Amino acid sequence: MARGASGDATTTDDARPGPGAPARRGARAVAALTRWWRRFSPTGLAGAIVLFAAALGPSLMPRSPLYQGAIAGVCAALGYGLGTFVGWGGRRIGLRAPWPRARRTLVHRCCAGLALVVVVWALLVDADWQERSRALLGMGDPTPARPLLVLALAAALALLLVLAARGLRSAVLAVARLAGRLLPPVAARLVAVVVVAVVAYLVLDGTVVAGVKHVLTTTYAALDQETYPGDEPPTSSLRSGSPHSLAAWGTLGREGRRFVSGGPDVDELARFSQAAGLDREVREPVRVYAGLDAGDDLDAVARLVVDELDRTDAWGRSVLVVGTTTGTGWVDPPAAAAVELLWGGDTAFAAMQYSYLPSWVSFVGDRATPPAAGRALFEAVHARWSQLPQDDRPALYAFGISLGSYGSQGAFASLPDVAARTDGAVWAGTPGFTPLWRDLTDHRDPGSREILPVVDDGQRARWGDTSRTEDAATFLGDAPWERPRVAYLQHASDGVVWWSPDLLLAEPDWLREPRGADVLPDVDWFPVATFFRVGIDLFVAGEAPAGHGHTYVGEYADAWSAVAPPPGWTPAATTLLRGVLDDPHGTSVGTR
């Protein structure tokens, strides 16, 4: 350095960066990146590549790049952990490759090239099956940028999870060093693992989990207070939420308000009856509902529903349906409309809310409340119904879709119990952990498939999947069957039905059997990866077009026609009802 006349420091020519400085900085950056990269386990990276590729394999439903990238990232992180463990175990038993440095470098480069090939191949496979699956379901083409989006998200998420795991490992080592001053090495490591695990759990449960719960509760509680545009308080005394009702409009919750303000009116019922060739007098249907805040507990809410049935004289109708709602209190509009059109409005439909959180929250964290709510409502209605003269009371049916199907079946111990206490049931999109459904499916007749079981030759319960190629009018079978009847609706592409923790390590029957008509034939099972693939299918199944995934619409026509047919009903009327329900605008019956 030299001082100028002003005393400021100036830079000599020798001190200025030369033309090779950028190259040197680049070389240092590459060297630093190489050192950082070498900190990763080779066997761990191999495991990450394998599970990344497996995660991108075909599944039941097409999904967005966000979902696909997330599942691929999680699987890659798990694969890295498994591969690292395998490498550690191999080193512990002395499995090492005594190769010279040059050979090791060559092997590493060959493995890196192979990994690149596998990644590109997996992304191409993903793009191909997404395109074919979307074409099969009529959902349009995926975005051209999909492979890059999936890769970027998967890499970022996998790296984040691996670094988080490394942070926990460093914490374990630090605690082990401290404990090692007082304890033997093995005991110190054990104590360190326990301490770090407990602290991590407490931190996550007290911050992340608690924060998520708070956000979900606050968000969905606020949504429950809202009202869908166009929903107005009913004026008819036959509806809850009307001026005559014991259940005020403001207490019903958003989904309850939608339920009591919707459905076909008398004119629509009359037009349908005339078109179906049914000479009958139509009536305005009864719809009763109680919101979550209507009582201190589930039994109190259920008693209010029974009071509403008394108030509306619902016991004088021909048909009474006890519906168990999904997590938010939702009643599937086509399901209720199908019964009302079938019977010309000579019906009553009763439901209640037990939560305002979405079904997936209960699916993950609260499986006790839905069956408790299903039991509370059905037992309350059944007790009052049983007091009526046997020849002067409505036929009693049970209904539920998705988590509502799980909850509704919670009211019954077995299929004979359903037959003894109801006149039939329709259950759609039943989650695979539902005890009654699971028991029937596991004990199906030999030779029948898991996606379409046959139980006792279909004498009491039957399964229908209208994605099959058979005629829709016979999708529950055309052989005579006993009453009361139970109809299960499920699609081969519905992940809600087929997801199970067993998918982690065991191949299910439905993946050993021929695939359903709306599932690609190359959908297969791979340890760990299939569990996460179908897990993502849970979240996208409801986005499927009608007749696929977790979307049930026209199927209700076939199910209710078989389970609860009115006098004079014909197969032609079933076909007409299916067409009305499948109307994408739902203008004729108000089902949308």
Automatic annotation (TrEMBL):
Organism for this UniProt entry: Cellulomonas iranensis
The entry's keywords: Membrane, Transmembrane, Transmembrane helix
Region (Disordered): 1-25, 225-244
Domain Alpha/beta-hydrolase catalytic: start-end pairs: 286-575
Record's protein name: Membrane protein
Segments passing through the bilayer: 43-60, 66-86, 106-125, 145-165, 186-204
UniProt feature, compositional bias: Polar residues: 234-243
Record-annotated Alpha/beta-hydrolase N-terminal domain positions: 56-264
